[in-house]
Every structure is written in structure tokens, then in C-alpha cells.
Write a structure and sequence with these properties.
4-stranded mixed β-sheet; 67 residues; 36% strand; mainly beta
Length: 67
């Protein structure tokens, strides 16, 4: 029996974000991208969903009223 690790892909607002360090948790990956996308810091993580042989995670911003 062979075990193959599926490649991960992260999506945010329609943008594919590379998985720079496969050993990091999805939360750590999200934290890594906060300098490029500050609003991602509070985003929920959906997934993973298997698409085309990859594990796809989505960062989804919370929608709500300010104040």
C-alpha cells in the first residue's frame, strides 16, 4: 500500500494562495498571509474539499455590520 500526500491549495477572494509550508496548519497559513491581506486575519476556514486531486481550503471573510 502506498500513501500519497495530497497537495493543498488555499483560496481567498478568488485568489489562489500557494501552500508555502505544507507542515503548517491552515490557521498558520492564514496568519502568514495577513501581511498581504489584513482582512484575512478574522476569516473563517472552510474545507478541505478534494478538487482535482488537491485539498482545497477557503478563507471566508465574516460578513456583518460594524459598530
Amino acid at each position: 500500500m502506498e500513501v500519497h500526500r495530497l497537495e493543498r491549495e488555499f483560496l481567498y477572494n478568488g485568489v489562489k494562495l500557494p501552500d508555502t509550508t505544507p507542515t503548517m496548519t491552515p490557521e498558520q497559513v492564514r496568519d502568514t498571509y495577513t501581511h498581504l491581506y489584513p482582512e484575512i486575519a478574522t476569516a473563517a476556514i472552510e474545507g478541505p474539499e478534494t478538487v482535482g486531486g488537491k485539498l482545497v481550503y477557503k478563507f471566508v471573510r465574516a460578513i456583518g455590520a460594524k459598530g
